[in-house]
């Protein structure tokens, strides 16, 4: 039985991890560390866990656990690892953006592998540390990497993607409270979103010489969870050829699925799935992808990576069903 620790236990991604790991047949949660909630019952914060755990948040860290999940704000994982040492056998899975880019992947002797299983499964299986991809980055990369692998991303890529309120984290802010978010829709970080870096590096690694613009408009939606991305670029082949290309690329991917019908968020929310639909109009290929930002975009993918590292079935503990209605 693997012993797991969670750092930063009060946030949305930590809550999802706790829910997943409580029911994971190969994992025992050793501790959930939270400076703001130390001593409080976990279910006092993650209130749906009443009756499922009597464990309390911890103010202490066990440095000998098998795997650590870092559920900290961006920039905080680096500081945390500078101040806390773990066993050489402890695997680290970081859910922030601290180690995703190539220039940041080696930190104080620790090498972080970019944890997109559909792209890096072989490297993940041999890894000691994982940089879990961003939520927008996951939805967008899964929509584009089959084209980059084929070397056919030869024009600018236009991306419009909308995320739910949980994408902003648990701490309340001016654009997350109910009165502002309800019946509302807005853009933010247009053209400059931080996930563009990791998306660009992935595409460049697959398509030699890729230098086209990624024109990204992120949006805030008036729903709690999920990401819906609409992406278009030039494609010279037929729609049938595009589907064949994607189906071949994802034939061994248990959570990324092609749909001949348009996709929507209710199909994927509360699952670890990504659903992708293709549409051809003249010379443009439209790719739509949908994920749950807290699962396939964060904690579900982190557990998927853990399973791969330890040689477990990739889908162990992740056979979740959408709450369609």
UniProtKB/TrEMBL annotation:
Q: Which GO terms describe its molecular function?
A: N-acetyl-gamma-glutamyl-phosphate reductase activity
**What keywords were assigned to this record?**
Amino-acid biosynthesis, Arginine biosynthesis, Cytoplasm, NADP, Oxidoreductase
Under Pfam families, the record lists: Semialdhyde_dh, Semialdhyde_dhC_1
Please name the CDD domains in this protein's record: AGPR_1_C, AGPR_1_N
According to UniProt, the reaction catalysed is: N-acetyl-L-glutamate 5-semialdehyde + phosphate + NADP(+) = N-acetyl-L-glutamyl 5-phosphate + NADPH + H(+)
What does UniProt list as catalytic?
Answer: 135
PANTHER family assigned to the protein according to its UniProt record, in alphabetical order: N-ACETYL-GAMMA-GLUTAMYL-PHOSPHATE REDUCTASE, CHLOROPLASTIC-RELATED, N-ACETYL-GAMMA-GLUTAMYL-PHOSPHATE REDUCTASE, CHLOROPLASTIC-RELATED-RELATED
The name of this protein is: N-acetyl-gamma-glutamyl-phosphate reductase
């Amino acid at each position: 039985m693997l012993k797991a620790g969670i750092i930063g236990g009060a946030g949305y991604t930590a809550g999802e991890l706790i829910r997943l790991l409580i029911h994971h047949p190969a994992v025992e949660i050793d501790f959930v560390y939270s400076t703001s909630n130390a001593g409080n019952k976990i279910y006092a914060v993650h209130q749906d866990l009443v009756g499922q755990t009597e464990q309390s948040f911890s103010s202490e860290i066990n440095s000998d656990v098998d795997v650590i999940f870092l559920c900290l704000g961006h920039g905080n994982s680096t500081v945390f690892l500078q101040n806390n040492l773990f066993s050489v056998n402890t695997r680290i899975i970081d859910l922030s953006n601290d180690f995703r880019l190539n220039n940041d992947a080696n930190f104080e002797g620790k090498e972080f592998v970019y944890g997109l299983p559909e792209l890096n499964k072989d490297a993940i299986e041999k890894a000691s540390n994982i940089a879990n991809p961003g939520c927008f980055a996951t939805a967008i990369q899964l929509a584009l990497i089959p084209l980059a692998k084929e070397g056919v991303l030869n024009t600018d890529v236009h991306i419009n993607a909308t995320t739910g309120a949980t994408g902003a984290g648990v701490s309340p802010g001016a654009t997350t409270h109910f009165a502002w978010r309800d019946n509302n829709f807005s853009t933010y970080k247009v053209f400059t979103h931080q996930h563009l870096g990791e998306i660009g590096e992935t595409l460049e690694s697959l398509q030699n010489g890729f230098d086209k613009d990624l024109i990204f408009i992120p949006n805030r939606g008036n729903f709690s969870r999920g990401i819906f991305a609409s992406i278009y670029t030039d494609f010279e082949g037929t729609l049938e050829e595009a589907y064949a290309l994607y189906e071949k690329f994802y034939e061994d991917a248990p959570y990324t699925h092609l749909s001949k019908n348009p996709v929507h968020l209710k199909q994927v929310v509360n699952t670890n799935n990504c659903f992708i639909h293709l549409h051809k109009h003249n010379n443009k290929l439209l790719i739509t992808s949908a994920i749950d930002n807290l699962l396939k975009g964060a904690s579900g993918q982190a557990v998927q990576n853990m399973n791969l590292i330890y040689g477990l079935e990739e889908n162990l503990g992740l056979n979740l069903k959408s709450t369609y209605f």
